[in-house]
Each structure stands twice: as C-alpha cells, then as structure tokens.
C-alpha cells in the first residue's frame, strides 16, 4: 500500500494503485532531480524506474511545489525495505526484502535505509 504521512505526500513506488495516466514531457527541473536520485540509489536503479516514479502526478506536483516560490522547503526520498510489524513479520515477506523508493515529509516514517534530500 502507499505510504501515507501526516501531510499526505508519502508515496511508494510499486503500489498497483499508482499509475501514470498521462504521458507528458518531463520538466527539466524534474529531470535533474531524477538524475540525482538515480546517482544516489546506485545499483537499485536497475529494479526501480525513477523516471516513472518522478512522472507520477502526485510526485510531479510535489516537485513543482519544491521548485515554486513559497512552496515546500524540502523533499525527502527514502530508499529502504518495507516496514514490518513489531515482531518483524510482514504479510508479503518476499516483497519486504526489496527496497522501495518513496517520497515523504519525514515525520511519520523512520529512516532505516537511504535518504535523498532536496531543499
């Protein structure tokens, strides 16, 4: 399921409910951020389509907000394994071993992997 944070911006790549509904040319500022994300996640980029993730309408809106005057001051992308319950169990144990890329404000999600921070 999608990661939801206090501000409602948490999105996790791989959620079947998230899909690109339109094909649009990527904004050069978004392309820059996608390039930096690819550089930061290294080998995981073979499994994760950063360009598609950045093109998701909800993510693109948050990137637009970051780039606008008076918009948000920071965005954080986390690359980490899915959270498990207190006992360490996860319903999708095979899926839990895969790192996921998601956008967060950082308030509701504990960092247990890599954080790529834009300000």
Order of helices and strands: EHHHEHEE
Biggest beta sheet summary: 4 strands, antiparallel
Order of strands, widest sheet? 1-3-2-4
Kindly name the structural category: alpha+beta
Strand % is 15-25%
- The average pLDDT score comes to 76
Q: Can you count the helices?
A: 4
- Percent helix among the residues? 25-40%
Radius of gyration: 14 Å
Shape by Cα distribution: globular
What distance separates the N and C termini? Answer: 27 Å
Identify low-pLDDT runs: 1-9, 16-22
> How many strand units?
4
Q: Helices, strands, pairings?
A:
Blueprint: E1 11-12, H1 28-41, H2 50-55, H3 57-67, E2 75-81, H4 93-96, E3 99-104, E4 114-118
Quick synopsis:
This protein has 119 residues and is α+β, with helices and mostly antiparallel strands. Helices cover 29% and strands 17% of the residues. The protein is built from four helices and four strands, in the order βαααβαββ.
Describe this protein's structure:
The chain is an alpha+beta fold. Helices cover 29% and strands 17% of the residues. It has four helices and four strands; from the N terminus they run βαααβαββ. It has helices spanning 28-41, 50-55, 57-67, 93-96, and strands spanning 11-12, 75-81, 99-104, 114-118. The chain has a four-stranded antiparallel sheet. The two termini are 27 Å apart. Mean pLDDT is 76; it is low at 1-9 and 16-22.
């Amino acid at each position: 399921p999608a990661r939801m944070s206090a501000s409602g911006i948490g999105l996790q790549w791989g959620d079947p409910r998230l899909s690109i509904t339109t094909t649009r040319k990527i904004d050069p500022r978004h392309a820059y951020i996608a390039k930096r994300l690819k550089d930061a996640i290294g080998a995981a980029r073979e499994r994760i389509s950063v360009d598609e993730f950045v093109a998701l309408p909800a993510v693109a809106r948050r990137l637009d907000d970051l780039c606008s005057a008076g918009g948000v001051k920071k965005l954080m992308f986390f690359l980490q394994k899915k959270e498990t319950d207190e006992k360490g169990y996860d319903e999708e144990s095979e899926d839990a071993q895969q790192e996921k890329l998601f956008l967060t404000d950082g308030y509701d999600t504990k960092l247990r992997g890599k954080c790529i921070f834009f300000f």
